[in-house]
Each structure stands twice: as structure tokens, then as C-alpha cells.
Fold:
Amino acid sequence: MISLQARAKLNLSLAVLAKRPDGFHEIESLMVPVTLHDTLTIRTSDDSDVRLTVRFGGRLLEPAAEVLRRDVPTDDSNLVVRAARLLAAEAGETRGLEIDLVKEIPSGAGLGGGSSDAAAALVGAAEAWGIDWPRSRLATLAAQLGSDVPFFLEGGPAIASGRGEQLVAVGGIPALHAVIACPAAGLSTAAVYAHCTPDAAQRGAAERLAAAFVAGDLGTAFAATHNTLEPPARALAADVSRLLDSMTAAGAVRPMLTGSGSACFALARTAAEAHAIAVRLEAAGWPGVFAVQVVSAAAG
Structure:
């Protein structure tokens, strides 16, 4: 039996630079993993099927978070199943898998839970089946599954470009704290991107932001966080605007959307600061609030 954590991510910056001929958007983003995570447990089976069970855990089990316990498919539409079957097809593996997924990352929130789960499934399935491939070969499969999956395969802070699959690792990002909050409704990634206005002038901003964090110039870094997708997300979901305003009222500095939303976050200098903001947001009635820490280095 193999157990793996699949971490959520935050986009400390997300610049949409242009629409690509293949229908995707060219982006640049400084992405960091955080301590909020799902858990996958993987076992081999005697038949050739890949079976997935999903249950909720952590704060998603709390009554206030019931609205965030969205249906998670267990068939081929789930990236976990697709990841395992893609690896089996590429490696000529005929055995099956039993995969148990405990969801603690809200779905449809821009936190990358599905992509992170897929990356963990690739790693776990390879280990369970004894497929000794280099990480670079798994990364080729990860890019086929989704734009964010290669990031989670690497496991540490990185600047993502292209459609998100081109990665440059960033060392030296401080282990900052953050508070994440989710409105009741999710957002469609496709809809948010369809309503955004690309801004080529933001090219290089992720690298400058990373340099400010690495240098410890947190005042400059906090002020330079940005997300091109925030205006369309606000326009499509009134709760996103209300949440960002509520985070400011709770004492958050520079709250912003992560990914295509609907989750929002704010960085904090200390765990106590993040916890205090989280308590105020919970008191204001927001259903999904998490105090987390940035994971500043890849595991292993």
C-alpha cells in the first residue's frame, strides 16, 4: 500500500499574456505549493481495472463546509483515473489499482486539487507497479493530462510559462503563511479565461516577483502579487468580490484570487496573523477557510 499527499497550490502571480493558436492561453505564473492537501492511498489489484473511491476529510467534513463538498466523479472523467490508465497504457501494465482519495482541497476553487491528485496518482501508480521511470518521463504524461499537472509533479515553487507546463524551479521562497477562503460557488476555468483580457506587458513580472520574495523584500513582493483573471472572476461571481472585500475587512493585506478561482487568499508574515484573519472570516460566515503555510522546497 502506498500513501501520498497531493498539495494545493497558490498563484502568487498569474499573468495571461496572449491567446494561443491551440486554444490555450500563454501564461506566466509564480506558483507555490501549500500545506493543505488531499491524500491518495494506492494498492495493486489482481484484475486490470482502475477503481477510485472518494471521500471527504479535514475541514470539508465540518457542517459549515457542506456547500464545498461538491460531487467528485470516480470514472474516467476524474484525472486520477485517467492518469493511472495513461501510465498503464504507456508502460504496458496489465494489473489494476484500487485508489482511495480523501479530499480536503475544495473542488472548482483554483487550488489545483484535481491536477495535484493526478500528479500523485502518476507517482503512486508507478511505484505500485514497479515502473522505474525518471521523473522527466512521467512529466511528459503529466503535460498530457493538464496544464497544472507538471507543476505538482515537481513539488516545489516554480515559475510556470507556456500554457503552464514549462517550469523553472525557484529556490529561496520563504515559508510564508497564508489564509485561503472559498465562497460557496465554484467557477468555470473556461468561462473565466474566456472573459479575461490578455496583458503582454506583464511578461517577466513573475520572475521579478520571485526575486523580491527570495531577497526577503516582502513589502515589495506582497504589493506586486497579481492575477489577470481576478477582474473576470469578480464579474462572473459576485461572491468573489464580496469575499475579497471581507478579507480586507478581516485584516488581510492584498487579498487576491488564486488561479481561476473561486478561492481567494492573502499572504501573512506569521502563523498568528493568518489564524487571526481566518477566525474573523469564519465569524463572517464564509464556509471554507484554511490557514496554511507555503511549502518552500520540493519534498525529497
Summary: The chain has two domains: 2-169, 177-293. The mean pLDDT is 95.
